[in-house]
Amino acid sequence: MIKSLQYKDCVISYYQYGKGVEVLFCFHGYGQQGRVFAPLAEAIEDRFTLYCIDLPIHGSTFWPSERLCTPSDINQIILLLLPKGVLKWSLLGYSLGGRIALSLLNEQASAINQMVLIAPDGISIQFWQYVATQFNWGRALFRYTMNHPTWFFGLLFLVGKLGIFDNRLIKFAKFHIHTDEKRQYLLRRWLKLRSCTIGVRKAQQLINEHLIITKLVLGKYDRVITVKAGERFAENQPQIKAYQLPTGHLLLIEPFAQQIAKLLV
Questions:
Q1: In this structure, are residues 8 and 248 in contact, taking their beta carbons and an 8 Å threshold?
Q2: Which mean pLDDT values do the consecutive 10-residue runs of the chain (265 residues) have?
Q3: Would you call 153 exposed, middle or buried from its count of C-beta atoms within 10 A (0-12, 13-18, 19+)?
Q4: For a FRET experiment, which of 65, 76, 182, 225 has its CA 20 to 30 Å from that of 166?
Q5: What pairing do the DSSP bridges indicate for beta strands 89-94 and 22-27?
Q6: Could you tell me the maximum CA-CA distance found in the chain, to the nearest angstrom?
């Protein structure tokens, strides 16, 4: 069921599923909406009540153009949605949503029971995204490129010919920037959510310090968030375990719902 919540000068759209006692906040991937969690919700609706938020510039959420979205904002939205008397909750994030979930460790790590991170951004530095969002000069170059993309298309063609990057990564990049509308969405979304991040070591420290059970779900053939990156994040981390499914980056789909559901303890 889709609902909405007023938060400051924003209107937050979210989907609520299930009737369980435990509470699970879900964060979708880039270009998706909260309803993408519906197949998973069917598998766990007796145990969990799910709140699946449409992130800024996604779905039906309204977020003013001049306002950044920070981990503090997401945390405040969680507290507004939280049923009365609930003191602890769990987080689940897919791709971009994984980075959102990890960034919340800086807000209320002690309130998080467990995290399931599916092909999560944020477990390693994504060089181009980092440059494009975290530095003034990088943001200026990013804006220019999204408005004048010819040189970047030429660069993608060159690196493809030279075999510098996997062709699947190049196709993935082209898919998100091949029209002006998609480029403008990418620009606005990346910049709007640029503060929702946390250092890898800081995330690992907080997960272990607060004994947060953390499961990574990785696609064996994923070239965006690789198995190698996930295993490196989990290495020597007692609270973090990595699991593989026989697919690429598209993990949050109905055939894998039951397998992911089993990871929620």
A1: no
A2: 94 97 97 96 95 97 95 98 96 98 97 98 90 94 91 76 68 79 94 96 97 97 94 97 95 91 88
A3: middle
A4: 182
A5: parallel
A6: 58
Strands of the sheet with 10-17, listed across from one edge: 2-7, 10-17, 48-53, 22-27, 89-94, 112-118, 213-219, 240-245
d(CA 8, CA 66): 13
Which domains, and CATH codes, for the chain? 2-125+196-261 (3.40.50.1820), 127-192 (no CATH)
- Give me the pLDDT at residue 35, please: 96
Per-residue CA distances from 243 to 33, 94, 178, 204 (Å): 25, 14, 33, 17
Enter the pTM of the model.
0.93
Which pLDDT value is given to residue 171? 74
CA separation for the pair 187, 171 (Å, rounded):
18
Contacts of 199 (CB under 8 A, 6+ apart): none
Rounded to whole angstroms, how far apart are CA atoms 14 and 52? 5
Q: Report the distance separating Cα 137 and Cα 132, nearest Å.
A: 8
Q: What is residue 206's three-state secondary structure?
A: helix
Paired tokens of 191? 């910049």
Query: What pLDDT, on the 0 to 100 scale, is given for residue 169?
Result: 66
Provide the b/e sequence for 113-145 (b: ≥16 CB within 10 Å): bbbbbbbbbbbeebeebeebbeeeeebeebeeb
Q: Nearest Cα to 17, choosing from 115, 104, 40, 100?
A: 40
Nearest in space to 208 (alpha carbons), one of 233, 232, 226, 231: 233
**Cβ contact 33:58 at 8 Å:** yes
